[in-house]
Amino acid sequence: MHRRRRKEAKGRTFANVYSIRFKQNEGAFLAGVLAAAWLETLQADGTFKKAGFVGGLKSDIIKDFAVGYYQGIQYVNSLEGYRPTKVYSSYVGGFTDSATGKALALNQYNSGASILFQAASQSGLGCIDAVSELYKTRGIEKYIIGVDSDQHQYFSTGDTSDPDKASRIVTSVLKRVDLALYEAILKFHNNTLAFGSVDEMGIGRIIEGQNVIGLAKNEYYEEIIPESIRNLITSAEEKILSGEIVVKSAYGMSLSEFNEIEDDLKVS
Description:
The chain has about 270 residues and is α/β, with parallel strands linked by helices. It has a single domain, classed as Rossmann fold (3-Layer(aba) Sandwich), CATH 3.40.50. It has 11 helices and 10 strands. The strands form 3 sheets. The chain has a 6-stranded mixed sheet, with helices on both faces. A two-stranded parallel ribbon has the order 1-7. Helix 2 (about 25-40) runs antiparallel to helix 10 (about 225-240) and helix 3 crosses helix 11. It is globular. About 40% of the residues are buried.
């Protein structure tokens, strides 16, 4: 009975509930654009380029990150002048297993991926360990895209400072739950919280002057990512905002459609 009630409630709104839906697929799309475009430089030879993705659980929310990333890569693949990018995809099976995250990332890097996107919470810290280890011990230049918060900044300051790790994180896909909750609390305090509604937060949503969804465009991003690629990412953002690009979501997507998108980019 409880399972049936949960299924019936999915997608509904309730008069006494304020809901937030984060469009992490849109932020991940930009990560895919960055990876596929930058690989033209990182992997100058070959008929196709190799990127990676490491997810935590293969749940709807992580698949939403993945499918956005894949579509960003497909977008660049469709542009004139770019060789196709293929993707190694792996899932840890949980969010607290950094050892497995590291092993999966090392396998992807050693198989030829030059950059990967991790959406795996604490397991993803193992992916960062992997790319840092390759750089420190073997001088191998590989890169990673972080998730949720600015992970380059996290490893650049304070007690968590690790310059080797920071230097491998070129950007992060931001999903600022903290900003969204801060705004919700303020609105509740001011009696302006829209109960009975679903607030969709994607590209272009700004709270306290900061993007809720998007890429971390810090000083290192501006330094390491070529201007032409940064302009391509800005163009993609504008096209998402205008509706010219509609990023599909894993929510409501059939398993067969998700697999079709993933298989289209799979390294054979």
